[in-house]
Amino acid sequence: MVAEDNLLNQKIVNFILQKQHATIANAINGQQAIDCLAQGDFDIILMDLQMPEMDGYTAAKYIRNNMHLQLPIVAVTASISDAELNESINCGMNAYISKPFDPDSLCDTILNLVKETKCKI
Q1: Domain 2-116 belongs to what architecture?
Q2: Do 74 and 94 meet the contact criterion of CB atoms below 8 Å apart?
Q3: Domain locations in the chain?
Q4: Most CB atoms closer than 10 Å: which of 27, 31, 78, 118?
Q5: pTM, two decimal places
Q6: Whole-angstrom distance, CA of residue 73 vs CA of residue 96
Q7: Mean pLDDT of successive 10-residue segments in the chain (121 residues)?
Q8: 27: number of CA atoms within 13 Å, CB side?
Q9: CA 113 to each of CA 7, 23, 31, 51, 83: distance values in angstroms, whole numbers, following the listed order
Q10: What pLDDT does 7 receive?
Q11: What whole-number distance in Å separates Cα of residue 82 and Cα of residue 11?
C-alpha cells in the first residue's frame, strides 16, 4: 500500500512498483490507509509522514496499537531529521526512505522488509 497525499509522488511510486509487478493500493491519508487495512491483506505500507486528516505517525501508532498488525511500515518523507527518525521508530515504523529516492533502493528496502517478515511468520 502507498499512503501518500501528493498525487504526483503517488504516481511515481506506483510506476516504480508496477514495473516490479507489484499489486498496489493507494490511500491519500492515514485514515484511508487504516480503512484499507481493515478490508484487505497487505505485505507492506509506504507511509508519508505529513498527510491531511491523519498523518503517518498517528496511522502507524493505530496500526500497531489498535489493529495489532506487524506488517512492515516504511516512513516516506522529503527529509528526515533525527527527531523525525526517532518518532517514526517510536510509532512502530520499520524503516524510512527520503524523497526523492533511488528506485533500486526503494525496491531493495521493500524486498528486504517483506522477506524478513514472511520468514518470521
Answers
A1: 3-Layer(aba) Sandwich (3.40)
A2: yes
A3: 2-116
A4: 27
A5: 0.90
A6: 8
A7: 95 93 95 95 94 96 96 88 88 91 90 75 42
A8: 29
A9: 25, 16, 23, 23, 23
A10: 94
A11: 28
What pLDDT was estimated at residue 121?
A: 42
Q: How far apart are CA 12 and CA 118, in angstroms?
A: 26
Give the pLDDT of residue 118.
Answer: 58
**How many helices and strands, by DSSP H and E, does the chain display?**
5, 5
Burial of residue 84, with CB atoms counted within 10 A of its CB: 0-12 exposed, 13-18 middle, 19 or more buried: middle
- Residue 97's DSSP bridge partners are 76
Measured N-to-C along each axis, helices 7-19 and 103-120 cross at an angle, to the nearest 10 degrees, of 70
Q: Enter the C-alpha cell of residue 120.
A: 518470521
